[in-house]
Amino acid sequence: MDLLAGTKVVSFNHFLVGPTGAQILGDLGADVIAVEPLGGAFQRNWAVGDQFVDGQSVNHLSTGRNKRSIALDLKAPAGHEVARKLVQGADVMMENFRPGTMEKLGLGYEDMAAINPGIIYASATGFGIDGPYRDRPGQDLLAQALSGLAARTGNADGPPTPVGPTVVDQHAAAFYALGILAALLGRRKSGRGRRVDVNLLSAALDIQFESLTCYLNGGRSETSRGPDNLAAWFSPAPYGVYATKDGHVALSMAPLELLSKALSLPGLAAIPEAEAFTRRQEIIDQVREAISTRRTADWLGVLEEHKVWHAEVQDYDAVMTDPQVLHNATIQTAEGATGAPISLVMHPVKYDGETPAMRLAPQLLGAQTREILAELGYGEDHIRKLESTDVVRSHGAETD
After folding, report:
1. Which helix (H) or strand (E) holds 83?
2. What does CATH list as the number for 213-243+248-312?
3. Is 23 exposed, middle or buried, given 0-12, 13-18 or 19+ CB atoms closer than 10 A?
4. How far apart are CA 48 and CA 305, in angstroms?
5. Which of 59, 8, 15, 62 is nearest to 31 (CA)?
6. pTM of the shown model
7. 169 is catalytic
8. Which of 54, 169, 317, 381 is catalytic?
9. What ranges do the domains of the chain cover?
10. What is the dihedral of CA 330, 334, 340, 342, to 10 degrees?
11. 360-370 confidence digits (pLDDT tens)
12. Looking at the predicted structure, is the pLDDT value of residue 399 above 90?
């Protein structure tokens, strides 16, 4: 994919939101240079589920494709010089350290704009670059808690429930990349760079824009979370998940008259559609009892026949063999940087019918250090000196 070919991105990112945003740009063809400390960034050394593949963290595998790697000590004067040279020739600089960190390193926006007026300087933070929460640690679960997302997820009879996947990080990462793309497009017209800021708290609120807009304009419910089987506090019945004899099935927006025929529940047809919210407990009780009497496979056929919007609730084993997932080729297995096979969730957008390819598997730390330094004009002797003094680290390189 060459949509961003010729665009150079220097990524000083770690954890999840930053590396993910940079990976999106890499998928689209940008030359992304991932700058990491000599011991590797956080995501390289900590793995979801404690899972490593041939010594590689799955966090790194999830967010590291289509990037070149340089290991660099930013606190060393010579390392700082390398970082400045990288930014001087870049289109985009990305970072997601706590506010003030890059300024202390002499790599803040004002410093970088002075040496590269056209730079798009993009920051991802937990709560914003200023304000009362500026110095708080930002993390997905904390953003879910503060934003109301956890309080509004789960069953009314249970506790607040965080969404399992890191949805805030990933939503923020998408806007991180989107903001950069918008700034790049704007630079074509104005000729100037600019600062782009995204934060987890705002992203967590944006995820909830539908329910929050309802609440802000007077919408209320007796409970913060959906009663019984309903998916959300603002949902009319039957919108939710129901247990069958051997599994679960999700029912979406279904007209009650249609649902009454599919489930053989004539009483549902007598409830006006306008009362699907106010009489939702009555609807839930009837639907739940009916659905529990048959197996999932039986209901799938019946619901399909009656054109009721529905889906089987699938766990990952079933997702891996789902025919549409296979057709979309969203999940792919390829050879990783160590030679071991790695399975990844690929870029979710197609362009002219094609999904961006993995041009470069997630790389070993410092795999391109020498290559990148050479591009910056460093000679062999200088590179070896930087290696021997622990300013940079090159994978597989021998030093004196």
Report:
1. helix 77-88
2. 3.30.1540
3. buried
4. 41
5. 8
6. 0.96
7. yes
8. 169
9. 8-207+354-393, 213-243+248-312
10. -10
11. 999 999 999 99
12. no
